[in-house]
Amino acid sequence: MAARAGGAARAAAGAVATGGAAAQAAGGAARVGALAPLGVRIFRWLWIAGLISNIGGWMQTVGAQWFLVEQHASPAVIALVSTASAAPVLLFGIPAGVLGEFANRRLLLIGVQSIQALTALALALLTAAGAMTPVLLLALTFALGTASAVQLPAYQAIVPEIVPTKLIANAASLSSIGVNVARAIGPALAGLTIASLGIPFVFALNAASFAGLLLVLVLWRGYRPPKADREPFFSATRAGLRYVAHAGVVRRLYLQLLLFIVPANALWALLPVLADARLNLDSNGYGLLLAALGVGSIGGAFLIPKLRDAWGTSRLIAATSALYGLGIAGVALSDTLLITLPVLVLVGLAWIGVIATLNGTVQSFLPAWVRTRGLSVYQLVLFGGTALGATVAGALGTSIGVAVTVAGAGGVVVLTAVWLLFRPLLPTTGKSRALAPMPLTDVPPVELPAGPDDAEAVPDAPGDRPPLDPDGSTLVIVRYEIADTDRPRFLELMRRVEQSRRRTGARTWTLYDDREHPGFIVEAFTVGSWREHLSQHRSRTTGYDTEISDAARALSRSAPAVDHLVSIAVPRHPHPSVTAPPTAPVPPTAPVPPIAPDRPTPTVPSTKEETP
């Protein structure tokens, strides 16, 4: 079961599923039969329907690219098929992550799948009528890519909801296998269909392939929407971006992904041109090339977890990146199908090795409360890099030649592997214990209410507090008493505490030296609202965060004192009970005597102050 995308984007989606399995395995998931998740009825039907849908999706990609080849479009235009499929993630990836975090995912998928089916049907009818143009084809491909961008985060998050925890790793592996089986079958089937029935029939089969998945989703009973605490849209978006910005390991992984995906996508964008111009293949031959990539990816889905256990994350990514770079350079320089096919099998294996391992490592460092939003940022980097890489490759292919462009891209990928040897990632990803939600012990709120709706009236001795605004900005102040000998160690720990606070919701963070009380250091941080601060305590703080804060807290010679301040809204207009202060009575003024005609008019002193 995997969301549909196009070209390299769909291949990456399959790797995402493998990465999920890797993440779960890293957390020590129990080893059970590889096919055990198929015993879960709803997963089995979704997996079968998803396989059929992905076969149709791969047929659509081949049909679109070959349509442009037959139109004698330039390499730059042909490469835009990958760009049109991936670019929507740049626009909708982050909002889709927020939507997938809190929405009814089943209804979301039904709606998006329906839109995709209608779009694919329009594509088939327009092509059959002879009204299809390259611009219209790219526009409809962009529409299909937009739908994929909206549904992808929800699709990734739905597997843990339908299979037992111990089967999640195997379910993710099966999802990846389904995507890569579709990649092996879809392109070859598309080539045969184009040769015998034409491109419009390929697009029609893609439209029909949505029917099975739609039927399964509509008939699905017993689905329970996520019960996560809902947040305002923009607040939830900021929280997800804030987490990624202050999670150093996650940022490093995203950078590595970007450095790989931009040059690596040259092969996916320009392979149709290589098949036509260098290997003199027709649509059947092009489908055979994509099938070879699919076979390699299927083998990689089974082999990569074992290699990762043996080599570690950094060495595996470096090795598979180097293999991919050398492989696509070989494909670019080869003019013989007998050489190209086995090399593409190795390239498919290397592709799944890099993308799946990076994604699995990312998932192992993303806590549950922000996982869907964090993965949407991952998709933003992945699909955005895909769109950028396809655009650059197309432009270079037109100007300096396709073979030179792909071979040069392979050299750049090899350089990223060398760079990784000097800047290694973490060798393991086993962080499941540290990512489990744990209560925040170092800054406990005063008498936490039972829920956000109860946050407006928290009792306080001797009387009741004034009403508390749950959406009011919250300032948390923590005072530590630190010995001079412990100060360097404490400051080093507080650097990590700052990152922890910011990851979980702090908007500002400052450390102060109390000049009036020597030996005391004051930490102050603000959170967007009291509700969000409660979320810090209840769901956002992980075991890893708690370990850091406890280590800093242990250096304090006395128990750290904590204060919570919640902002008060100052009224714009005075309350009716508030009256103006009384003014002093004005003494009566003596009557002015009548002025005689022969006397000058007296000057009356002004009661106003003169302006200096």
UniProtKB/TrEMBL annotation:
Drop me one GO molecular function for this one.
transmembrane transporter activity
For the keyword Transmembrane helix, the answer is yes
Which residue ranges are recorded for the region named Disordered?
445-470, 572-612
Spans through the membrane:
45-69, 75-100, 197-220, 253-274, 286-304, 316-333, 339-362, 374-396, 402-422
Q: Where in the cell is it found?
A: Cell membrane
Q: Does DNA-binding show up as a keyword for this record?
A: no
Which first-to-last residue range defines the signal peptide?
none
Boundaries of every Major facilitator superfamily (MFS) profile domain copy: 42-426
Topology term for the membrane: Multi-pass membrane protein
Q: Which domain of life is it from?
A: Bacteria
Q: Which PANTHER family match?
A: INTEGRAL MEMBRANE EFFLUX PROTEIN-RELATED (PTHR23513), STAPHYLOFERRIN A TRANSPORTER (PTHR23513:SF11)
Protein name as it appears in the record: MFS family permease
Q: Which organism is it from?
A: Herbiconiux flava
Origin organism lineage = Bacteria, Bacillati, Actinomycetota, Actinomycetes, Micrococcales
